[in-house]
Amino acid sequence: MEKREQMYEGKAKKVFKTDDPRYVIVDYKDDATAFNGEKKGQIAGKGVVNNTMSNIIFQLLEKKGVPTHFVEQISERETIVKAVKILPLEVIVRNVSAGSFAKRYGVEEGIVFDEPTFEFSYKNDDLGDPLMVESHALALKLATKEQIETVRKYAMIVNDTLKEFFLERDLKLIDFKIEFGLCDGEVILADEISPDTCRLWDVHTNEKMDKDRFRRDLGNVEETYQAVFERVKK
Ligand code: UDP
């Protein structure tokens, strides 16, 4: 497959056309942003980690019955994926309180939930990705009821799979964000699953091993991405 012109450049990835309209190539950058783009920086090596880690996880999820956009990794930073139309809903699943949940409700981080929570954010940078209830997503025709049911079902499989996967690697899955796209009318998992999009705490020390090290200036950012990568590869 041939890499053609760039279609789009996002905060952490570039997307290129190929000679086949059914496929695109994503190219992961080391650029990092937080707080809706207000904080900007670089995390050396992050693109390689996030690309490879996402692909390992997407292949595992395929085995668990979640269809994904993954096709083939072609270099350290580049992967061929199915071209999709992204649903403008960020799906967030939480097992433990942290981040915006702790802030919104004025509670500490680290409260373990009996059941995972499930929420949407409206994927809209100008609005700062606001929390959105399902009826509003339906009212705005961002997705159909059936698509939302499918998204919910897949999100729960992703949570169960990732919780086990990370626990085997001495990491607690606190929360994560995923995105879905439409391909031939079907809902499939797209975007990435990485320390940029998951909160992961070390099982023994509760040390944060994710993008919060960048967001909150906790130090050892590059080292932490590499440490997660080493655990994920094993
Ligand atoms: N998240 C993400 N992209 C976003 C917002 C959140 O990947 O634009 C991830 C974040 O890394 C965390 C989870 O979604 O694992 C829940 O994030 P939260 O709502 O707590 O927001 P944050 O504290 O990141 O602003």
How does this model look, in words?
By secondary structure, this protein is of the alpha+beta class. It has 2 domains: 3-82, Phosphorylase Kinase, domain 1 (2-Layer Sandwich); 85-220, ATP-grasp fold, B domain (D-amino Acid Aminotransferase, Chain A, domain 1), CATH 3.30.470.20. Helices cover 30% and strands 35% of the residues. The protein contains 6 helices and 14 strands. Strands 8, 9, 10, 11, 12, 13 and 14 form a 7-stranded antiparallel β-sheet that branches. Strands 1-2-3-7-6 form a 5-stranded antiparallel β-sheet. The longest helix is centred in the middle third of the chain and has 23 residues, at 145-167. The two termini are 30 Å apart. Residues 92, 98-101, 129, 175-177, 196-199, 211 line the site of uridine-5'-diphosphate.
